[in-house]
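Hi all, long-time lurker, first post. I run a small reading group and we've been trying to get comfortable going from sequence to structure in the token notation. Rather than ask abstract questions, I figured I'd post a concrete chain and ask someone more experienced to write out its structure so we can walk through it together at our next meeting. Sequence below, copied exactly:
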Amino acid sequence: MRFRWKFTFVVLLICSATGMVSSQDGPYGHYTGPRSLGTYSHDRRITAKSFLANFGAVPSRRDTYCVADANHRLFLHASVDSEHDREHLDEVFLSSFPNCKHLSVFAAKIDPMIWKTPEGIGIGSTKQAVLKHYGQPQYNRAGALKPGPDEIAGIGESDQIKIDLGDSSYVYSCMIDEKQGCDDLRVTQFGFKNGKVLWILISDSE
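-- Answer (accepted) --
Happy to help. Here is the structure in token form:
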């Protein structure tokens, strides 16, 4: 996630210059996003083994694990930090659309009653509810978002994928301003479509 987030940060800076991304009155230097999503938590290190056990799967030497629940129309991928720690997860992406390409996918139940934040925010929640619980984001983005590896795991540069990632997104992190970060690496992004949560990314490695 570290390399990919650096890329996302550069995109934020470029879009800020063009007016596509705006900074709100978010509390710079202080993370206000959710502490957990489903069985993934900022408060404790989650091993890939224990995480996958919830879906009846076992870890291998891959960097990213994909799970799909066709009945609930929920899909997720979870990744380890391949450069520093292959045992523990550092990112989870949950969405209402398939989010893996060229990767093996486990078919398992993704319980929508479990896969929410502690405040009850999940896929389908309203933008107003996100603001109520977490306040103004550090950044918000309006306009169509092009799929990248954070959203579609395994995507290649030559892949042509037509997936609607929504019309806006919020970023909650500890960035102090557009040029200065902080020691708290937690970050959560919410993607919205027509005012409803379409996807959620939560990570411990900006």
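A couple of things your group might point at:
The mean pLDDT is 84.
The longest strand covers residues 85-95.
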